[in-house]
Amino acid sequence: MSDKPQKLQAQNPGDEMTAKEQNRMKNKRRIIIGICVLSVLGIISSVVLQNPEWLSAESVLNGVESEADNSEEPKFYFYPTDFNLDVSLDKEYAELDRDIYYKNGGETFSLADEDPNNQTAILRFFCQYFESVMAGDAETYNGYFTDEYLQENGYQEQFAPQMLYDILIEKLSEYQTENGDILYSFDVSYKIHKNDGSFRDDIGSDASRRLAFHLIESMGNVKIERIGQYVYG
Predict the structure, then answer these.
(1) CA-CA distance, 66 to 60, in Å (whole number)?
(2) Lowest CB count within 10 Å: 50, 98, 161, 184, which one?
(3) How far is CA 21 from the centre of its chain?
(4) What are the tens digits of pLDDT across the range 69-79?
């Protein structure tokens, strides 16, 4: 055995400091990432809580036609109902645009400019439909729907004359079936001046809510098969 002392290899203190610093940097990064994740989750939770409708079924159907009725009825202020109302005597209504406008592609025109004798069955239908609403003629109005529609949805009860304006009908599609019937889809919008709620209670006065009309023309006779509403989140 040798009596000479053994030489021990010294460890570089710089290497030890570097390893410690690396561990500290890793821990700092983990902490920073954790804080960022928690912050983002907190922001998302706060926004969602402030906008709970984002989680509703209706928001999924945003802008999509639906026949589902809302369980909670909207609340609007309605004017007193007058079944003997003469709409021609209302000076404010006289200043509004009461023409019926029809849009087909890039063309839009007023039905008032059309010769009734030269109108198509669809144009005559819409003129008569809106005339019945403005006259408060529920019996004639109900005659514009198919029997299937009336069996499923019931008849429209008596309503007062309605002061309609800003009426726009936009044609979306037309399809002829094998038996010769023609199916149409339209977007229909209008406003009601001084709405009394007897005809429509889903909109307030001078407001509009777009509807989807689905019509069938059979042997020149036009009827409404379905009316849908667009649901917005």
Answers:
(1) 11
(2) 50
(3) 59
(4) 544 556 789 99
Element (H, E) at 175: strand 163-176
Question: Are the C-beta atoms of 168 and 156 separated by less than 8 Å?
Answer: no
What the block records as the tokens of 107 is 């063309």
The size of the chain, in residues, is 233
Pairing status of strand 163-176 against strand 100-104: parallel
Give the other-Cβ count within 10 Å of 174's Cβ.
14
Q: Are 136 and 85 in contact (CB under 8 A)?
A: yes
Three-class secondary structure of residue 101 per DSSP? strand
Q: What is the DSSP string of 39-73?
A: HHHHHHHHHHHH-GGGGSHHHHTTTEEE-PPPSSP
Would you state the structure tokens that stand for residue 85, as one six-digit string?
Answer: 């109302």
pLDDT digits (tens, 9 = 90+) for 83-121: 999 999 999 999 999 999 999 999 999 999 888 788 899
Q: How far apart are CA 196 and CA 205, in angstroms?
A: 8
d(CA 218, CA 180): 7
Total-model pTM: 0.69
